[in-house]
Design brief:
With 98 residues, this protein is mainly alpha-helical. It has two domains: 30 residues; 67 residues. The protein has three helices and no strands. This is Envelope stress response membrane protein PspB.
């Protein structure tokens, strides 16, 4: 009986353990759908907060002529290059899912 258990352990148990942990290792290194949804929500929140900051800065600038915002401006083309690249990637990703 011991040789049968040894053969089963070598030819069934050992490959199963190796393949199981290889699968775990591969799936742990990828972004899940939940992670993608969370990133999309965070991105949308950041855009809304940026729009609010623009509004606050416009209000302050209208009250004080010497106010100059220290952050990136939404209406300047050179400040929006990376944001446009990110939005293009998101549109491509959504287009491939449909």
């Amino acid at each position: 009986m011991e040789p049968v258990i040894a053969v089963v352990a070598i030819f069934v148990g050992l490959p199963w353990v190796i393949l199981h942990y290889m699968t775990k290792w591969k799936t742990a290194a990828t972004i899940t759908n939940d992670d993608e949804v969370l990133l999309e929500e965070l991105y949308q929140l950041a855009k809304r907060l940026d729009e609010r900051m623009d509004t606050v800065e416009r209000l302050v600038a209208s009250d004080h002529e010497d106010f100059k915002p220290a952050r990136l401006l939404a209406d300047r083309e050179e400040d929006n290059v990376q944001l446009q690249e990110l939005e293009m990637l998101l549109r491509e990703k959504k287009g491939t899912r449909r």
